[in-house]
Amino acid sequence: MRMKAEPATRVFNLVGYALLIVISLLCLIPFWLIVAGSFTDELEIVSDGFKLFPVTVSFEAYKSVFQTPEQIIRAYGVTIGVTAVGSALGLLLTSMAGYVLSRKDFTYRNPLSFFIYFTTLFSGGLIPWYIMMTKHLGLKDSYWAMILPPLISAWNIILMKNFMKSIPDSIVESAKIDGAGDFRIYRQLILPLSTPGLATIGLFLALGYWNDWFNANVFITDDGKYPLQFLLYKILSSAAVLQTDNGAYLAANIVPPTETLKMAVAVVATGPIILLYPFVQRYFVKGLTIGAVKG
Amino acid sequence: MTGKHGLMRELSRNKTMFLMIAPTLIFFIVFSYVPMVGIYYAFTKFDFEGGLFGSEFIGFENFRFLFESGLLWNLTKNTVLYNLAFLIIGNVMQLVCAIFLSQLPGKLFKKSAQSVMFLPYFLSWVLVGAFVFNLFSDLGVVNTVLKQLGMQPYDFYIQTAPWKYIIVFFSVWKGLGYGTVIYLAAIMSISDELYEAARIDGANIFQQIRRITLPLLKPTFILLILFSLGGILKGQFDLFYQIIGSNGMLYDATDIIDTYVFRSLTVNFDIGMGTAAGLYQSFFGFILIMSVNTIIKKTREDYALF
């Protein structure tokens, strides 16, 4: 049963479609620019600059990246390792803390919640934290310097706690009557019932690790330990040009790709996120709507 | 029974529970609570030999310098004004998008639009830096277009004016999908019957939005704004650092507390001054969020943070 649209609705729809199309384009154009830039001939960029629609298409930048791929592969390895270890460990600790704080029969639930929550209200700031990490824990140039900082966040614990609170108390109670220990209740009952929450927080953690460049920026000086995003940052800011085989280009009298190379590395570093995006998006949407209910 | 006795009994009775939360507590003690001791740096003339308590104590000298040099005022002004712009423009855009997404016909279109709008949230700020480079560097797309139109190229790296808009644009751009999802969830919780009744009474879509959607979203809107106001002194370091980087020409218009503290640590090695600026931010941030929470508690207790 479809009613004929009245004039007001037609105006509304028109404005709505126009606005959403413009916004969608604004969200997509930067990607197009990067991809287009990465496939442009270096000479064209040097003489004309980046274009919306490049004239001479070239694969030189990608050839250059994949001819000497060690650095990129190494950075991929660091990022994947840090993301895997950090997300798994973070998820374990967050879910355990969330479980303990969600148990209504746990006496110190409220003071401990506040103890954790307070860290979001007040902090010593970046510098005392940095000195703690480097001077007292000696984490400079350690992989742990990238794993530890995003590992546990008060927000994730609160989200987890709220998620587990929605599981009926009767489940915990009957398990206790049956003689199950606290950890067993967590592992065999609460965890399986919390899979949507675990998926959301796990993905949030993984995304945070994958996109992290800040911790590498302050703690990592050894370029063999650069994660992907930080390598991209370095290449973009020209501080560390990718170790490519420039000699071959000079010998052949061709301009070696530099500007296009930056774009190609950006594509290579972002590709996996774009490819995974359609599959993981709904978990984020779900997680956000859970978290939006109440903190 | 003394409190201590009670705690010990609790500990032994709930040993597993305490063990499960212990790593988290240790984490926050080591990375959040112990570093608070380092606030003391703010009151010293830091020297690398002396360390924490070997440095000369100078009281509020660092704060006085920050205040009297006008630096603190400029940093605070930039931080607060940028955050206000992010907050207001961001929330209004998110609200508008959510309303359209909830009311427009065409499921496939809406789904695609929402997916596309949410995409920037998933990208690293480094990639945003790549966009900015591609668009605004002297070889950037904007200058290419200007040249094609026969106009003079524009040197973005020495002009402060455009960056204010570029920064606000990318902040709104990156957070749009995220906020839209939250508002959309709030809209979806509005009962369909209300709209049904309004339609029967002859209300058109604009009237429905004005009389039903907006009033019912007002609490969510105000709440989100209030919470953000509590964090208004916290700057988005990633955003500013990836877009502006270390271009000193632009600091007047783009330096926020967080970028200043970062530079104190990594470029100027002015530990005392940087810690002082950080403490100023943390302290007033704390007062702000406490005030916001008190206000929320007085009006809508169930939404208070604690």
TrEMBL record, chain A:
It holds the Pfam family BPD_transp_1. PANTHER family: ABC TRANSPORTER PERMEASE PROTEIN MG189-RELATED-RELATED, POLYGALACTURONAN_RHAMNOGALACTURONAN TRANSPORT SYSTEM PERMEASE PROTEIN YTCP. One of its GO terms (cellular component) is plasma membrane. It comes from the Bacteria. This is Putative aldouronate transport system permease protein. InterPro entries: MetI-like (IPR000515), MetI-like_sf (IPR035906). The keyword Transmembrane helix applies. GO terms for biological process: transmembrane transport. The keyword Nucleotide-binding does not apply. The chain crosses the membrane at residues 12-35, 75-100, 112-131, 143-160, 189-210, 263-280. It is found in: Cell membrane. Belongs to the binding-protein-dependent transport system permease family. Keywords: Cell membrane, Membrane, Transmembrane, Transmembrane helix, Transport. Its main location: membrane. Residues 76-267 form the ABC transmembrane type-1 domain. Coiled coil: none annotated. It is a multi-pass membrane protein.
UniProtKB/TrEMBL annotation, chain B:
The chain crosses the membrane at residues 21-43, 80-101, 122-146, 166-191, 212-233, 278-296. Belongs to the binding-protein-dependent transport system permease family. CDD domains: TM_PBP2. GO terms for biological process: transmembrane transport. Its main location: membrane. It is a multi-pass membrane protein. PANTHER family: BLL4140 PROTEIN (PTHR43227:SF11). This is Putative aldouronate transport system permease protein. One of its GO terms (cellular component) is plasma membrane. PROSITE patterns: ABC_TM1. It is found in: Cell membrane. It comes from Paenibacillus methanolicus. SUPFAM superfamilies: MetI-like. Residues 76-292 form the ABC transmembrane type-1 domain. Keywords: Cell membrane, Membrane, Transmembrane, Transmembrane helix, Transport.
